[in-house]
Amino acid sequence: MIRRLLCDGEAVELEMCLTNHTRPARFSHVVGKVPGRRHDEIVVVGAHYDGHDIGQGAVDDASGTALVMELARVFAPLAGQLRRTLRFETYAAEELGVLGSTTYVEAMSDADLAAVDFMLNLDGGALGSGRGLALQGLDELHPLFADFAREMGYPLDLNNQVGTASDHFPYFMRGVPVASMFARRPPGLGRGFGHTMADTLDKVNEVELRESAMVAARLLLRLADHQDAIGRKRTADEIKQILLDHDLEEPLKAQGKWPFG
Question: For residue 245, with 0-12 CB atoms within 10 Å meaning exposed, 13-18 middle and 19 or more buried, which class applies?
Fold first, then answer.
């Protein structure tokens, strides 16, 4: 109505009464678990359920949350049958600086964190065709997932990129092996519709979403029953070196997220 009045040449005057309050941050996380034969060996699958205010956040990251829910549904009947326990996690406030998952991980005890063998992050994995994993500079994960890709007969893209702005990062900073799943975006699309007003439900292609669910489920099944270690835990010094190798010291310092002094 305001826009129509302005287009008609009308003068528009607004008066707003704001009653906002600043409160200590409290983040809500939704977590489900499918018990395995080992309760001290856990594979985490996570995604964030918040989006930017300017759009629906359908691709980034309602699609990831939908994938986590679908994987929980698929694996629920397998409770007690797989080696590792599966934990399905969704986090708040990723778009505000990965605050939700950071708070969640920081609240975990050392014993709880030690039980996590691997974390798979699903952040906007349903835009484009072909799926891959960003292995976060963890070199030993490449042959493992290359073997999985051969077993699956699926051309899984693997790269060594380290991402600092999504929910795998708090686990990574605590030394847990992690990977983030992505989809190849159409040429010229850049980072896609995320963080724009165009990130609406019509941008989520059902076929692409099903492909993401299929790839993630087949990977998760192999991770859950893998008999050997899934990568290895890193020390703080090793994590620091990975970040230095990928030229991430200055960006993280600018964000106040460089914990190494």
Answer: exposed
